[in-house]
Design a protein that fits this description.
Number of helices: 9
Distance between the termini: 59 Å
Bound molecules: nicotinamide-adenine-dinucleotide
Structural class: alpha/beta
Strand content: 15-25%
CATH architecture of the largest domain: 2-Layer Sandwich
Helix content: 25-40%
Radius of gyration: 23 Å
Number of strands: 17
CATH class of the largest domain: Alpha Beta
Length: 358
């Protein structure tokens, strides 16, 4: 019997900006079996050498890369301030585009990028990869637990003590700072979780390291549904924080870290008759006393219960280009996230709650 021949019509991609994230993409694109990385352009000699060593064709200029007929699509993985420049250039050269996050440094800039892609009939897809993080999917699974009741608050926390990495992430003009860098992921996740409108954004920032960009933020998003998302990003916190906390009417859930299982503590008996109160500090309290064990139940939710297997980002990109499937990450959703971030910056600047309809 003749073996069925599998024909792979791989997408040929070239990378603009061959730094840390580009190399990660390079490896994973090759592993996906859907994309073939053929070349790269970078303004830095060391980065260009790294691309050459990894067998890529190195271009002397972005225009040369874009003039290469073999190149069907580009990945833009430069610092954030030049994403728009390269997106418009690539769109005008009729190349499909994967752009790293944050796609732009404002909604007007993002609108120009989307327009350039639409005008030229090419796809523009932003790499909002954390929509498929297991810890996030597990949080959603926890929040959907029927016994939990209405979820009124979700806390999303990423904390470390490593400070701002690299060089450009410390510079405002380059699109540095944690609100752009991690805020874009954590906001995006919350907007995917609750599709109702964001009606208010409150944000404050830390500048511990003395650069002109934030190195940590705390943000509240109020949704029309009644949910409040509490987002914390810290680069100068030496404590280990929980990645997710989910507050429901009848219990509290948590996902400890990126790779842990989920835990739920739910009420069995609302009234704790055994609570006689405690001495706390210089006072007495019944409100803040520990609950009797018999009034609560604990449930462990394994990681395997994290919601739905989704196609990989690259598979999605392939299916959009080759099979005409809808983009895995819609540009409308990217724009929505961008507008929330803008409101966040406005809130930091004005030290005020920003009313929104996003
Ligand atoms: N989605 C994710 O999980 C994720 C993770 C990390 C970084 N990123 C994003 O990827 C992008 C790159 O981040 P990184 O961590 O790889 O940064 P990096 O500093 O490691 O790499 C950036 C590269 O771009 C090159 N470069 C700078 N200006 C350029 C220009 N004008 N033209 C061409 N090349 C230029 C630099 O020489 C460098 O090699 C950023 O947008 C960042 O937000 C995304």
């Amino acid at each position: 019997m003749r073996k069925k021949q599998i024909v792979h019509d791989k997408i040929k991609i070239a990378i603009i900006g061959y730094g840390g994230m580009a190399r990660w993409h390079h490896m994973h694109m090759m592993l996906s079996g859907k994309i073939s990385v053929i070349g790269a352009y970078d303004i830095d000699k060391n980065a260009s050498d790294a691309a050459r060593i990894r067998g890529l064709k190195v271009y002397a200029a972005a225009e040369e890369l874009l003039a290469d007929k073999e190149v069907e699509a580009v990945l833009i993985a430069t610092p954030n301030d030049v994403h728009e420049y390269y997106t418009v250039l690539a769109a005008n050269a009729k190349k499909h585009i994967i752009c790293e996050k944050p796609a732009a440094l404002g909604s007007e800039s993002l609108a120009r990028m989307i327009k350039a892609a639409n005008d030229n009939g090419v796809f523009f897809i932003v790499h909002q990869n954390r929509r498929w993080d297991k810890d996030y999917r597990l949080m959603m699974r926890l929040a959907a637990e029927p016994g939990l009741g209405r979820v009124y608050r979700v806390q999303s926390n990423v904390s470390s003590s490593h400070g701002l990495p690299g060089s450009w992430r410390k510079v405002k003009a380059k699109g540095g700072g944690m609100l752009w860098d991690w805020g874009v992921h954590l906001i995006d996740q919350m907007l995917e979780y609750d599709r109702s409108k964001v009606v208010a954004v409150t944000c404050r920032a830390d500048y511990v390291y003395g650069f002109d960009v934030d190195d940590g933020i705390e943000m509240f998003l109020d949704f029309e549904s009644g949910l409040t998302a509490h987002i914390v990003i810290d680069t100068n916190n030496f404590l280990k924080e929980r990645r997710w906390r989910v507050f429901g009417e009848n219990g509290t859930g948590m996902v400890e870290g990126w790779h842990t299982c989920g835990k739920l503590i739910m009420v069995k008996e609302r009234l704790d008759k055994k609570n006689k109160g405690i001495t706390a500090g210089n006072g007495f309290t019944k409100t803040m006393a520990n609950r009797s064990r018999s009034t609560i139940k604990r449930i462990r939710i394994p990681r395997s219960k994290a919601q739905a297997k989704t196609p990989s980002f690259y598979e999605g990109f392939y299916n959009t280009l080759r099979k005409g499937e809808p983009q895995l990450i819609s540009n409308e959703s990217v724009m929505r996230c961008m507008k929330v971030m803008e409101a966040g910056f406005q809130s930091i600047e004005q030290k005020a709650v920003i009313r929104t309809n996003i």
